Every structure is written in structure tokens, then in C-alpha cells.
Amino acid sequence: MEGTASEGELLRGLVAGDSAAFEQLVRTHGPRMLAVARRMLRSEEDARDCLQEAFMRAHSAIEQFEGRASLGTWLHRIVVNAALMKLRSRRSKPEQSIEDLMPNFDADGCRIEPMWQIDESVETMIGRREVRDLVLASIGKLPDSYRTVLLLRDIEEHTTEDVASELGISAGAVKIRLHRARAALKKLLEPVFEKMEKP
Amino acid sequence: MRLSGISMLNCHQIEEFIDSYLDESLSWRRRALFRSHLLMCRECRSYIGAYKRTVALGKKVFDDPVGPPPDDVPEDLVRAIIRARDSAEK
Ligand SMILES: [Zn+2]
Cβ of B78 and A30 within 8 Å? Predict the structure, then answer.
């Protein structure tokens, strides 16, 4: 849905309860929303449920859509919230430990770290298929509670305070989880950073 | 950081300030301590370089215009959603 005229038309159909308009909504915005659900949720089944729940919520709330944001932005928020609800219902499951992916220090608190030589731009790196695949796979490997914070803060760009209230944890806990998620991701991405020989 | 005693913070201690350093929310004093550590510690400079690059790659991977097109919604799922909506209407 690109032009605002056709978006306005779609919206009028939706508010009138027109089923063809609803189908158009699903076909137009569903792909992007499913991509969001898939990256937030690990299982395909959860992603599908999430998309369906998001559209049901959109359907029942369409009259509250005020048109201040675009329909796409509004739906994006709905699917992110639906995914968060799903993650919350999963939270009691034990999670794998993130400890092995934390940075290393010696007994004196000195960092043990290779010298990286990163010459390529971010754009060049992400343009390479194997880098993009590794970044996606590595984000997917993070335990849910860390991946969720990373996605909400770095990708969805919610504020620390918003994430804290969305997840029902303190702002301090959000900051710690974000840092640990980024550090773990960095460890997982080390294969794409080039090592410099130590002089 | 190998020159112990010169800086007031060791690598382990600066770890928790990295995000605040990167988003420039450290106090003036902490920032000065952090920077003086970085000046002397190549391990932390290397680490932070890779860390910053990681954050940038994570942010870019989902909005790359040459990346894969958004996922198609499987037809059976489209139908299921429409059915669910229709039964909610009744
Ligand atoms: Zn250091």
C-alpha cells in the first residue's frame, strides 16, 4: 500500500467491515509483519499464531486507528506487541546460558582479546551474503530474554524505559541484558572480523 | 590493560560502561577515565571496535535494501486469518 489515497480507501473498507478490504490488508501488510514475527519468535508455529493474533487485534481496533501514523507503522506496532505477548507466555522455560559468550578477562581483570582489523564498511560487510546469514543466525542463537531486548532496543529502537515496561523488568536490567546480548553477538560474529598478527 | 596502576579502571571495570560510553551518556569524569584507559589499552580498543561493528551490523541486517524481500505469507495462513476474522464478525 503505497499511495495515501488507496490507503484511505482501504481504511474506509476496513471500518465498514468489508471482507475484501481485510483480505487486501493481509496480503499487503502480512509479508512484512510475518518477517517481524519470525525474527522475534523462534518457531514458525509461534510466528504464524502471532501474525493471526495481530490481524485479529487490528480488525477489532481498526476504528481506533487515528491515521497519525501510516497503517504500516500501526500494524508493525501491533505485531511487535503480539510477539512480546507470545514471548512473555514462554518466559517460564529454562534458557540456555549466555556465559560462554561473554568477554574474557585474566585474573587481574585484563581483557583477553585478539587484535581485530576491520577495514570494510558496515555496508560492504552486510552486502555479503555469508555475513548477513551469520548475523541473522547469530541473533537467532541468543537466548529469548536477551534476543528480545536486543531486537526491541537496537532494531525497533524502543527506549530503555519502554522496553522495561514492555517486559516488566527494571531499566537497569534492560541495560545489562542489552550489553550482554551485544557482547554475545560480537563473540558469535568474530569469524567475520579479521585477526591481525600480534607484533 | 597491561600497565596496572596507571589508570584507575581495569578492563573488567570498563566493560559495564561501554554502552554508556558509546551513547555518550557517561559523566564527564567517567568519560575521561574511560578514554584514558582506551588510550593505554589496545585490547579494549580492539574489543570496542568489534563491539561497535557488531551493533551496526545487527541494526543493518534487517533494513538492508538489497537484502531478501519480506517473507511471503503462506496461502493457507492467509486463508486461516481471513476465516478467523469472518468468524469473529458473526
Ligand atoms: Zn582494557
Answer: yes
- B:66-85 residues touching chain A, CB 8 A cutoff: 66-67, 69-73, 77-78, 80-82, 84-85
Report the SS3 class of residue A91.
Answer: coil
Read off the pTM. 0.80
Q: What is the ipTM of this complex?
A: 0.80
The residue to which cell 578477562 is assigned: A105
Contact A30, B78 (CB under 8 A): yes
Q: Which residues of B touch A131 (CB under 8 A)?
A: 57
pLDDT, tens only, A114-140: 999 999 999 999 888 899 889 988 988
For residue B14, the SS3 value is helix
Give chain A's domains with CATH numbers: 7-89 (1.10.1740.10), 99-197 (1.10.10.10)
Q: Could you tell me the residue ranges of all domains in chain B?
A: 1-40, 53-90
Q: Mean pLDDT, consecutive 10-residue segments, chain A of 199 residues?
A: 66 91 94 88 91 95 84 89 83 74 95 94 90 88 91 92 94 97 97 81
Closest residue on chain A to B75 (Cα): A27
User: How many angstroms separate the CA atoms of A46 and B77, rounded?
Assistant: 12
